[in-house]
Amino acid sequence: MTAPPSAPAPPDAAPLEVAPSEAAAPPDSLPAEDAYDVDAEGRDRLRGVLWMLASALGFSIMSLCVKLVSDSLPTMELVFARSAFMAVLTFTVIRRTGGKALGRDRRTLFLRGAVGATALSLFYFGIGRLPLGDAVTIQYTAPVWTALTAAVLIGERLRPVVLLGAVLSLCGVVLVSRPLILFGNAAAPLDGLGVAAVAGASVLSGLAYTFVRKLRQTDQPMTIIFYLSWIGMVGSAPFALGGWPMPTGWQWPLLLAIGLATHVGQVGLTKGMQLLEAGTASAIGYVQVVLAFVWGVVFLGDSLDLLSVGGAALVVSSVFLVVVLGRPRRAA
Question: Is residue 129 domain-resident?
Answer without folding.
Answer: yes
